[in-house]
Amino acid sequence: MSPPVEQPALPQLPGRRNPKWIALGIVALCLGALLSYVLYARVADQSSVVAVASTVHRGDVVTAADLTSVSVPSTAGVSTVPARQLDQLVGRRAVYDLVGGSLLPAGAVADVVLPQPGRAVVGIRLVTGRAPSEPLPRGSSVRLVALPPAGTDAEANDEHTGRTIVARAVNKVEGTDGTSVVIDVDVAAATAPAVALLAAQERLALVRDADR
């Protein structure tokens, strides 16, 4: 009697796939593609611009430490300076006060030379009590008040007594005598002779105003 013939094994049919998992996979792929696009669009919409790292007062020389570059969203409608121009700004002067932490507007740094046409810088020496004791940042708005001549009463005052001259502080240092300060002020050229005369006669007092 011949041995029984073994029947070949039937191939196994693949299991039926769950349509829910297929749908979830497609949704996941779509979400991943959408997220990638959003991230790309956000990065592509960033601009690298110049920002002010530390406050620079009007007229001061801008150093490399005063500026930095930052990436910000689209700056359409906002005046900025591209970061690639940062090196070109170092060594120039601030046209007006630059506040630390702000974006640098176009035209805020230039080859400013003091004094400007029609202006003059005059050095005045003021004794204790005739100028504020607190720091006087460069560019501060000040008024110079003419005092009466020494040894005269109010009725004998000259034409300058009580006169007020608008100016801006350029620099302030302690006097060598330890009891005075020397302040350079930027005034209209037409008033510079009067300021120099009153300073020589020690008839000036300085009042600091809120910056305008």
Description:
The protein has 212 residues and is of the alpha+beta class. Helix content is 18%, strand content 26%. It contains 3 helices and 9 strands, in the order αββαββββββαβ. The strands form 3 sheets. The protein has a 5-stranded antiparallel beta sheet with strand order 5-8-7-6-9. It has a two-stranded antiparallel ribbon with strand order 1-2. Strand 7 (164-174) and strand 8 (180-188) form a beta hairpin. The longest helix has 26 residues, at 19-44. It is rod-shaped. The N and C termini lie far apart (120 Å). The mean pLDDT is 81.
Quick synopsis:
The protein has 212 residues and is an alpha+beta fold.
General form: rod-shaped
* CA(first)-CA(last) distance: 120 Å
Instruction: Find the structural class using helix and strand composition.
Output: alpha+beta
The stretches of 5 or more residues where confidence is low (pLDDT under 50) are none
**SSE string, helices as H and strands as E:** HEEHEEEEEEHE
Helical percentage: 10-25%
Q: How would you state the average pLDDT, rounded?
A: 81
Task: Count helical runs.
Answer: 3
Q: What's the number of extended β-strand segments?
A: 9
Alpha carbon gyration radius? 36 Å
Walk across the major sheet and give the strand order.
5-8-7-6-9
| Major β-sheet profile | 5 strands, antiparallel
Strand content: 25-35%
